[in-house]
Amino acid sequence: MMKKNGFILVELIVSITFVSIVSLIIINTVIHMTSMLSDTIQYRNEFEDKTTIHNILSVKFATQNIASISSIANGYAFSFKNTETKVYNDISVKLESGTLYVDGQPFESNEYIEYKNLSLTEYKLDGEKKYLKLTIKTLVNDEDSDINIYYLNDMDYTTSGSLGSDTI
């Protein structure tokens, strides 16, 4: 009888086929996971930018009273007055060449989010209260998306320039 010292050809072909199939499955899974990670990072970057912008503005709008609003080049300047300390605090929101500046902090348009325009709409409620809506129009994944910040104040403030339904 002859001793078997190696594999026969059929065993080698089956082994190579099995290893090839497993390799293809692993490579496909890695490619899919990489794509999912990229989408997750994209969503996270967009969400973080929008959240940061909203937080900067909404905290100011919620905790301080607007003393004045001015239309500036490519945006708006808000002057807030703290009712307790009587201290004025200025903040500007402007859009220049696809970069949104909120209180001096730049938010650049990128492959995930594009800042398109700003608009400030002023309403009067009950004849006395003034209601503002600051809208930052964005394009996210080829879909329009807005960042809206609302302000309702019964104190009087002054405006410089026409703010009735202003879009920049």
Quick tags:
168 residues, six-stranded mixed beta sheet, 1 helix, rod-shaped
Strand content: 35-45%
Q: How many β strands by DSSP?
A: 10
Largest sheet: 6 strands, mixed
Global morphology: rod-shaped
State the end-to-end CA separation.
92 Å
Mean pLDDT: 77
Global Rg: 28 Å
Number of helices: 1
List the domain count as a whole number. Answer: 1
Structure write-up:
It is a single chain. The chain has one helix at about 10-65; strands at about 65-70, 75-80, 90-95, 100, 105-110, 115-125, 130-140, 145-155, 160, 165. It has one domain. With about 170 residues, the chain is of the alpha+beta class. The longest helix is centred in the first third of the chain and has 55 residues, at about 10-65.
Task: Describe how the helices and strands are arranged.
Layout: H1 9-63, E1 65-72, E2 75-81, E3 88-96, E4 99-102, E5 105-108, E6 113-125, E7 129-140, E8 143-153, E9 158-160, E10 165-167
Parallel strand pairs: 1-9
Antiparallel strand pairs: 1-2, 2-3, 3-4, 4-5, 6-7, 6-10, 7-8
Task: Give me a quick take on this structure.
The chain has 168 residues and is an alpha+beta fold.
